[in-house]
Amino acid sequence: MHMSKQTFARNVAGIALATLALGACSTSGGGGNSVAPAPARQASNEGTVPDYCPQVSLREGTAILRKGEGDNLQYIASIVSTTRSCRVRDGELYMEVGVAGRLVPGLAAKSGSAQLPLRVAILDSGKLVYSQLGQQSVSTDPAGGPKEFRYVDRSIRIAMPKGRSLVVYAGFDEGPQGGASRPGS
């Protein structure tokens, strides 16, 4: 069977597009090997699974982080999914909150790594009961294309709420902008 160069190029392009489309799909347990998951601590497997484990929400303005602008853009990082798990032990709620995302290098990207500031905050009936700022290192390579990252906060331990009153937020947090602070962060 003889295939013309044009047909061959079209087939290769189709396969490449299908591969890219499938590679772009992501779920909370999805692929990528940019960051190996840390082993779960023993405490996370102890206790009982509660009837209620609150969803993780992204606050407006915290799902995308840009470093630089225009020709000075170093990267754009975005959160593409979140997940959580809950256990109850000794009257306390133990949670693990996970964030997955991508970092896309910009025109001014430099080889090395970027430190992404990620915050998990929990409100109980509007009152802040947990807030932790973590850092996730992501390798950057101007010619390497997008990089996936995963961040998991495994240190959440709060009093069991009296109802379904918890709100869990996750997102990028560079700190106060212009001296103002965001409520709940």
Give a description of the structure.
This protein has 185 residues and is mostly beta strands. It has one domain (30-172): Sandwich (Immunoglobulin-like), CATH 2.60.40. The protein is 11% helix and 44% strand. The protein has one helix and eight strands; from the N terminus they run H-E-E-E-E-E-E-E-E. It has a four-stranded mixed β-sheet, with no helix packed on it. A four-stranded antiparallel β-sheet has the order 2-3-4-7, with no helix packed on it. The protein is elongated and about 50 Å long.
Question: Pairing-aware structural class of the strands and helices?
Answer: mainly beta
Give the ordered list of helices and strands.
Answer: HEEEEEEEE
How many helical elements? 1
Number of strands: 8
What spatial order of strands do you see in the largest sheet? Answer: 1-8-5-6
Quickly name the level 1 CATH class.
Mainly Beta
- Distance between the first and last residues' Cα: 64 Å
Mean model confidence by pLDDT:
78
Tell me, briefly, the overall form.
elongated
Largest sheet: 4 strands, mixed
Low-confidence stretches: 1-44, 178-185
Strand fraction equals 35-45%
The domain count comes to 1
Helix content: 10-25%
Task: Examine the coordinates and then state which fold CATH places here, giving the name of the CATH topology.
Answer: Immunoglobulin-like
Roughly how many Å is the radius of gyration?
A: 20 Å
In CATH terms, what is the architecture? Sandwich
Seen as an oligomer or otherwise, the chain set is single chain
